[in-house]
Amino acid sequence: MVLTEEERKAKQKEYYQRPEVKARKKELRDRPEVKARKKERKQNNRLNVLQHYSKLLSNSESACCNCCKESEINFLAIDHIAGKKQMDSEPELIKLGYRSTFQTNGLIRWILNNNFPKGFQVLCTNCNTAKSYPKNNNKCPLEGKPH
Fold first, then answer.
1. pLDDT tens per residue, range 37-83
2. What is the Cα–Cα distance from 97 to 94, expressed in whole angstroms?
3. Where are the domains of the chain?
4. At what angle do helices 104-113 and 32-58 cross, to 10 degrees?
5. What is the model's pTM?
6. Backbone phi, then psi, for 6, in 5-degree steps?
7. Cβ atoms of residues 57 and 118 within 8 Å
8. Residue 2 and residue 60: Cα distance in Å, rounded?
9. Separation of alpha carbons 108 and 101, rounded Å
């Protein structure tokens, strides 16, 4: 008997809903070595994205804020240049499956899977927060000032 793709997916979903299968997956996922590999992969992915956009926009070999040049990796974030909600209407990004609802790790994975699309930059937490205030019109107050 040959199953259709729909039937195969339904059987697979049913299998993964079994309590014993869920318990086994959780047991494997919770192993310390698996958690450590996952954490390291997330850190490497984040660093790759930060370095790419830093090099592209700041001409810097290491990750740094595009505005104030802060380079402490723990203070850096991916910023939507046009603003998070405004990017939902960018046709090129929509075609690639962009959604403003992505959280940090989801956005980083999406950026990597879509070959570093335009529209993103690296900002430190301070510049990113300052940029988000309505009175600043989506610009950091430090932008263009000597540091």
1. 999 999 999 999 999 999 988 787 889 998 888 999 999 999 988 87
2. 5
3. 31-136
4. 70
5. 0.75
6. -65, -45
7. no
8. 56
9. 13
